[in-house]
Amino acid sequence: MPRTQPLIEARQLGVRLGGETIIRNVNLSVFDGQIVTLIGPNGAGKSTLIKTLLGVHRVSEGQLTLAPSLTIGYMPQRISIDDSLPLSVYRLMTLTHRAARTAVIDALRLTDVPHLIDRPVQQLSGGEFQRVMLARALLKQPDVLVLDEPVQGVDFNGEVELYRLIQRIRDERGCAILMVSHDLHLVMAATDEVVCLNGHVCCTGAPETITRQPEFTQLFGHKHADALAFYSHHHDHNHSLAEQGGHLHD
User: Fold this and answer.
1) Distance (Å, rounded) from C-alpha 248 to C-alpha 250?
2) What is the model's pTM?
3) Which of 16, 55, 193, 219 has the lowest tally of Cβ within 10 angstroms?
4) CA 187: distance to chain centroid?
């Protein structure tokens, strides 16, 4: 039975690092089966918020509440692997979480790449690597998936497929998903709630409503707001490469 209380809840959350306030007055709730996407400009504090939810950074003010026995699977924004280091997909999957080979195969099957289990990581394409990292986050069978720029380093067609995969995982497993993204044109079709962050929460709401909020327009401009408002109502068909949207880089 789905939980009626949030899995993650932040109230007036603030974080200071090195004597500087990075985020303040952040209110955020993530429920079972919900996809929540954090957007915002460079330096908005998105990764800081994610790392605070994961316990990497300490809460400086406000309150952060996690559901009892909550399990979080985390897919980081970047991971650097030395080209000279012999590392298979199986070894990467189990570096920080011990698991049987059968469990690793099951996780890789969720992202459609079980055949890559013995492939050297250095030989993976960008899309394959992101699918492996997503499977790695799923290995713990999490209640919440936290994805920091999950389509980074992937071409446009790969981005579309990865967002569809993320939706499918949510639908099949019922887990909540909190992700950071700047691919606004695509994320409007792959999320339930958008949270716009710029040191604080500027605006929040469903994709079809957030683009009409003045705070969104002020932050991203009329051009993006108009394009995204159109896209959010016309995302149920395939797009050609000529129709692909731009990115707001983090």
Assistant:
1) 6
2) 0.83
3) 55
4) 10
